[in-house]
């Protein structure tokens, strides 16, 4: 079903995709996930409940959903490369806003802006990376995996910065962390701004193609459950580690293990991602993700938490790549932005509901363990549903 209407001569495709991957590095690895590292100090300093803390990720997810709904139109209007750059810039601005004030409304707006920017940067970046990767069909899945390793760099770098900054400057220094992450993101954005990456002949100018929900409804529901399930782990696990007695070094090590796992993802899952068999690849990876999310419920030992971080991380980064591979196998190139946006919308709705549910369960039960149980269960059910997604027919 794929249309051979993409550029066939991208010089240094791996290098270009690594540069494009700086968008999700900033937008997701830092812009979204670094919040978890700062959250415990923000809760203590600002007097938030778990529900209020969860709301900050809910408003971020709402922005991400809104951005996903608008992504195809934005890409069509300004092109893939511009959408990636402007989306990333919005995320950098949001980081600076987080450093400026402890006002709940201001922080909510910053998190909303980060979500909007992340959707534009990620969807545009994923489509652009798919365009570049498709110019080397034999290596396409590996090249595409490089893009999805991007957030790992953001998680790793923020994990090396945030816990120790908080330790050095003491309680109430959360705003200093946000400034440090802002400066880091500005430095990372420079190659993205300065490298010429033109996609004028690719997806941005392609005629829009119809996307039907019904043939992939069960797959979208499975991806929705991933969005709702993973967010509890990524939002509250640092708080869980801290509550178990883990200091700055333990928190940093846990977070860095998640980030480091992204760098083995392209090699570990390349065979699974190459499976053109409907939702099976997604189901396998999502099942592993559910196992990783469930491991902390068995105990608080450093070894168990480290294994959890690695298992969760290697599957987490591959999951989004599996959906893009599914889109690439089953849709024409002109439909890629719309299809990726549909996947992102399902994911985004799950992210909106997940933090609210997690925060409410934790406030009601008094322990994060209950919410993490629900999180792991949702991931497991999502894996089962994805397994029932078949390969689409050419008429779809």
Describe this structure in words.
With 396 residues, the protein is mainly alpha-helical. It has 17 helices and no strands. Helix 5 (80-100) runs antiparallel to helix 6. The radius of gyration is 19 Å and the shape is globular.
List keywords for this structure.
396 residues; mainly alpha; disordered N terminus
Based on secondary structure, the structural category is mainly alpha
Q: Kindly state the mean pLDDT as a whole number?
A: 85
Major sheet size, sense and barrel closure: none
How many DSSP E strands? 0
- Kindly report how far apart the N and C termini lie: 9 Å
Structural Rg: 19 Å
Individual helix count? 17
Low-confidence stretches: 1-8, 201-205
How much of the sequence lies in strands comes to under 5%
SSE string, helices as H and strands as E = HHHHHHHHHHHHHHHHH
Global shape? globular
The percentage helix is: over 70%
Layout: helices, strands, pairs:
Layout: H1 13-20, H2 22-30, H3 35-46, H4 50-78, H5 80-100, H6 104-134, H7 140-148, H8 150-169, H9 174-194, H10 217-243, H11 248-261, H12 265-268, H13 270-273, H14 280-294, H15 302-330, H16 336-365, H17 368-387
Helix pairs in contact: 1-6, 1-7, 2-5, 2-6, 2-8, 2-9, 3-10, 4-5, 4-6, 4-16, 5-6, 5-9, 6-7, 6-16, 7-15, 8-9, 8-11, 10-16, 10-17, 11-15, 14-15, 14-17, 15-16, 16-17
């Amino acid at each position: 079903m794929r249309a051979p209407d993409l550029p066939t001569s991208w010089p240094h495709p791996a290098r270009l995709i690594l540069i494009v991957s700086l968008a999700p590095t900033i937008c997701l690895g830092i812009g979204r996930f670094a919040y978890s590292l700062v959250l415990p100090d923000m809760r203590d300093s600002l007097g938030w409940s778990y529900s209020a803390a969860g709301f900050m990720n809910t408003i971020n997810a709402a922005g991400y959903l809104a951005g996903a709904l608008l992504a195809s139109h934005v890409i069509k209007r300004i092109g893939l490369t511009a959408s990636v750059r402007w989306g990333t810039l919005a995320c950098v601005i949001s980081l600076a806003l987080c450093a400026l004030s402890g006002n709940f409304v201001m922080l909510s707006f910053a998190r909303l802006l980060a979500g909007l920017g992340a959707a534009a940067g990620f969807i545009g970046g994923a489509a652009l990376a798919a365009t570049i990767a498709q110019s080397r069909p034999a290596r396409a899945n590996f090249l595409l995996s490089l893009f999805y390793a991007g957030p790992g760099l953001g998680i790793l770098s923020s994990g090396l910065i945030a816990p120790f900054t908080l330790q050095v400057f003491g309680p109430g220094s959360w705003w200093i962390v946000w400034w440090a992450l802002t400066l880091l993101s500005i430095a990372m954005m420079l190659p993205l701004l300065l490298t010429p990456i033109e996609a004028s002949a690719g997806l941005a100018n392609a005629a829009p193609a119809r996307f039907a929900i019904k043939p992939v409804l069960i797959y979208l529901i499975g991806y929705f459950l991933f969005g709702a399930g993973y967010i509890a782990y990524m939002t509250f696990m640092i708080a869980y580690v801290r509550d178990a007695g883990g200091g700055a070094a333990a928190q940093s090590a846990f977070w860095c293990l998640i980030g480091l796992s992204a760098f083995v993802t392209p090699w570990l899952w390349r065979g699974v991602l190459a499976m053109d068999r409907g939702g099976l690849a997604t189901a396998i990876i999502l099942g592993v993700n559910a196992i990783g999310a469930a491991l902390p419920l068995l105990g608080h030992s450093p070894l168990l938490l480290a294994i959890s971080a690695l298992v969760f991380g290697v599957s987490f980064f591959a999951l989004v790549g599996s959906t893009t591979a599914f889109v690439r196998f089953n849709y024409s190139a002109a439909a890629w932005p719309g299809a990726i946006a549909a996947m992102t919308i399902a994911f985004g709705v799950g992210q909106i509901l997940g933090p609210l549910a997690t925060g409410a369960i934790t406030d009601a039960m008094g322990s994060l363990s209950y919410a993490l149980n629900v999180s792991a269960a949702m991931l497991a059910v999502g894996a089962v549903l994805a397994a029932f997604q078949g390969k689409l027919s050419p008429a779809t």
